[in-house]
Write a structure and sequence with these properties.
Strand content: 15-25%
Radius of gyration: 22 Å
Low-confidence stretches: 24-37, 189-203
Mean pLDDT: 76
Structural class: alpha+beta
Distance between the termini: 54 Å
Shape: elongated
Strand order of the largest sheet: 1-7-6-5
Oligomer: single chain
């Protein structure tokens, strides 16, 4: 790893940015290994706004050497301070497609590493990594949940027990989409709020 002579301002900005970042969501499938992973787009999505808000940016350039191909990633701060690392991967096949795949793979891991973000299984887990797991519903979200409860005739006490809260106003924001999806499933009348998170139970 290489860096500018001083990185104090960069380090401060990165610390603040990491406090705002969630995890990179595993939203791509690997059919060969029957698993999911966070692709490059997910990593960029996780860091884009926190980086912009704290004066951070990055560049990535393809590199190659006798060991293979990869990328050189430079993390920069508006002060001019920077950190740089090179990450290469061996390639079995010597063709453009293999090199392109290796570079994309290297970009994802290098960027994730230099930003210091983990991967998360879904948006709810990503929110928890940002500390958003403590935020309750907004007034509009609470009103919408109450409307759906009344419309479906759902048992409010049972609903709150399901989400482990004393009242609708105390429902955590990360459970909003899940709650909406469950209530809509109960009424069989989907609205514009169709972003369920995780398994949904209609036994409310």
């Amino acid at each position: 790893m290489r860096s500018s002579e001083s990185i104090n301002e960069l380090a401060t900005a990165l610390c603040k940015a990491q406090g705002e970042m969630g995890g990179a969501v595993k939203d791509s499938a690997n059919p060969f290994f029957k698993s999911s992973y966070a692709d490059l787009t997910s990593v960029i999505k996780a860091i884009k706004q926190p980086f912009a808000d704290n004066g951070l940016s990055y560049t990535q350039f393809p590199v190659s050497n006798e060991n293979g191909v990869g990328v050189s990633t430079r993390l920069m701060h508006i002060s001019g301070q920077w950190l740089e690392m090179e990450y290469t991967l061996p390639t079995v096949k010597k063709d453009p497609q293999a090199a392109g795949s290796a570079i994309t793979y290297a970009r994802r891991y290098a960027l994730q590493s230099i930003a210091g973000i983990p991967t998360a299984d879904d948006d709810a887990e990503s929110a928890m990594l940002r500390g958003d797991d403590k935020k309750v519903l907004s007034d509009d979200q609470s009103s919408h949940i109450k409307f759906l409860l009344e419309e479906t005739g759902a048992d409010v006490i049972k609903f709150c027990k399901w989400l482990k809260v004393d009242s609708v106003d105390k429902v955590l924001a990360i459970h909003y989409e899940r709650a909406v999806a469950a209530l809509e499933a109960k009424s069989n009348q989907p609205s514009d709020y169709q972003l369920p998170m995780g398994k949904v139970s209609s036994k409310i």
